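Ticket 4471: requesting a sanity check on a complex prediction with flavin-adenine dinucleotide. Repro inputs:
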Amino acid sequence: MSRLPSGVQPDYPLARLTTVRTGGTGEFFARVGSADQLVALIAWATDAGLEVGVVGSGSNLLVSDDGVRGLVMKLDKDLAQIERDGTRLHCGGGARLPAVSARAANAGLSGIEFGVNIPGTVGGAVRMNANAYGGELARALDWVDVATGSGIERRSPDQLGFAYRRSNIARGEVVAAASFALAPAPVEQVKATLAEMREQRKAAQPSGIKTFGSTFKNPDDPRAEGRSAGQLLDAAGCRGLRVGGAGFSEKHANFVENHGTATTADVLALMAEGRRRVHERFGVVLEPEVQTLGRLDWPGWEL
Ligand SMILES: Cc1cc2nc3c(=O)[nH]c(=O)nc-3n(C[C@H](O)[C@H](O)[C@H](O)COP(=O)(O)OP(=O)(O)OC[C@H]3O[C@@H](n4cnc5c(N)ncnc54)[C@H](O)[C@@H]3O)c2cc1C
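Returned structure tokens:
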């Protein structure tokens, strides 16, 4: 490739940009600090025939051990800001959701408390339709700015195709910014809710481990009899199960933990084994919640 645009680096290690810390390098990588730069880089990549990928906090992301062909971006500077405008918070797509929740609490604004325990960015949360404790992203969102190589398009929540852990943000589209419309509430009350949610989370989930949170979606299958993916994995004997350096957590069977030396291939093999056991025992087919970057092989995935 001839000259790279300013800020684009070749062969950038991506594992450290993910919470599970596995995977290879990005062929091209850039930290992107403004909406103009974002649109220009997507246009450059599209013209060059490169795939476009984006990493938020990498908290629900598996990167191929063979790396990612194309351009991978991480949003920074202007695109990671949180600004208050009355009862609204305008956020860059790279702003961290727990920081948005804390900022709202300090400003006496209610509606985004559930973000306190979701260790992702605003962009990642929109793409994934992230949720916790019955809070609803769509209810708090006012609008979302989506960038492509042709510019920025503003979408309202009902134009985002939200479903369980899904939106219509396509590969190659990047959430550049989002605005939350919140309701005034006493500061102490909002802060108390955040503290309570943090405590509940501490009791229910392992902390301080390298993981990407929920591995599989909770199934919508009558044979699951209302059980979550974690409960099914547990009942199928997967709690603590290991493959190479990866294992299902002892505390939460739907969390995969990198015990230090895991590769993405270890994680995929572990997922395949968990999925196989649940299918064999209950007839339920688990589908991954975790997202991927780069070309992955899924050995043992066929049931
Ligand atoms: C300990 C732990 C607890 C968790 N708890 C919850 C929970 O309670 N509820 C919940 O819903 N999730 C939870 N998660 C999962 C994860 O935090 C969410 O899915 C989060 O929304 C992912 O955001 P991210 O910025 O880390 O995205 P990443 O993991 O970096 O990426 C996920 C997907 O979003 C895309 N993406 C990222 N940024 C953008 C952008 N700006 N524009 C377009 N696409 C983008 C990526 O390309 C990828 O496809 C948890 C994870 C961990 C590790």
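Notes from triage: The chain has a mean pLDDT of 96. Leaving this open until the requester confirms.
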